[in-house]
Specification:
The mean pLDDT is about 95. The chain has eleven helices and eleven strands. Helix 2 packs across helix 3 (about 50-65) and helix 8 (about 185-190) crosses helix 11. It has helices spanning about 5-10, 20-30, 50-65, 90-95, 115-120, 140-145, 160-165, 185-190, 230, 235-245, 265-280, and strands at about 15, 35-40, 50, 70-75, 125, 135-140, 170-175, 200-205, 210-220, 250-255, 260-265. It starts with a helix and ends with a helix.
Length: about 280
């Protein structure tokens, strides 16, 4: 296995990817100026981007223009979603002196990549208030996208994902794997299927009177709301749904930098995924 320096050397030897190259590739892929666009990115797949995450965000904002909105799910690096799986010592330490979620300050989840944190901290960014399913947005409709997110079922009706669909927005998988399409959780939530797997957990949230533990109920977005393996076997269900949507003419695939990227229209993808779930599990 190469060490960190070797990996960096391999990366910087690749073709340099500039802001103008990204804009040209994204235009060819079909990104529309003025749209509401949700972003998922695997930055390393793009190649050696000159300027890194700053360049990617700047390129998207330039292409989208002043009337558009850029959205990412940012979550919280220190949420307690999987609290029951922690060691007793870690649980005790967290409960006795918990961090407090502040939507405008708390760090985005590290495993979402570098771009969500960059969007969260971009000048003028707006943030929704959910401690586990926070979304951040930049641009014309950022306030509307992030306002009023429900504490329970935060990716269902009234959520930023529901508003992405309402705005006839798009999802851009910028080198990111199809299994990470967060919008499909919205389809899971609104699908008319009984016996969805439900989770309940609590998170500490900053309030004017101090830290308050907020109880949350949601579909299981970690292990799956449905018994997907009965249908998809060892393949990830979201990847299967996305590939079948592409085969049905919903979304496009193309190169951006050195990556293979995808662009999906949000209403059509949610409609396809909802029907897929209902067909297999209702």
């Amino acid at each position: 296995m190469p060490d960190t320096n070797d990996a960096w050397d391999l990366l910087v030897r690749r073709t340099p990817i500039t802001r103008s190259r990204l804009i040209a590739d994204l235009t060819t892929l079909g990104v529309q100026p003025g749209s509401v666009l949700m972003l998922h990115t695997r930055l390393s797949s793009l190649g050696f981007v000159i300027g890194g995450a700053d360049t990617v965000v700047a390129a998207l904002l330039e292409l989208l223009g002043p009337g558009a909105t850029l959205v990412a799910m940012t979550g919280w690096e220190h949420d307690a979603f999987d609290f029951d799986e922690w060691t007793p010592a870690r649980q005790e330490a967290y409960r006795s002196d918990p961090p407090a979620f502040d939507p405008d300050v708390s760090e985005a989840r590290g495993d979402y990549g570098r771009l969500p944190e960059r969007i969260r901290t971009w000048p003028g960014a707006r943030n929704s208030t959910h401690p586990e399913a926070r979304f951040s947005a930049i641009g014309h409709r950022a306030g509307w996208i992030t306002a009023g997110q429900p504490m329970n079922y935060p990716q269902g009706p009234g959520s930023p994902l529901a508003k992405l669909v309402e705005a006839r927005g798009y999802v851009l998988m910028l080198g990111a794997p199809l299994e990470t399409i967060t919008l499909l959780h919205h389809a899971e939530d609104i699908a008319h299927v009984p016996n969805k797997k439900i989770v309940r957990y609590s998170c500490p949230v900053k309030t004017p009177s101090g830290v308050q533990w907020v109880e949350i109920e949601d579909i299981d977005t970690s292990l799956g709301a449905f018994p997907y393996r009965e249908v998809t076997g060892d393949r990830d269900a979201f990847e299967v749904i996305a590939e079948e949507a592409l085969a049905a003419g919903i979304g496009v695939r193309g190169p951006v930098g050195e990556s293979t990227s995808h662009l999906f229209p949000a209403p059509e993808l949610v409609g396809f995924a909802t029907s897929w779930v209902e067909r297999h599990f209702a």
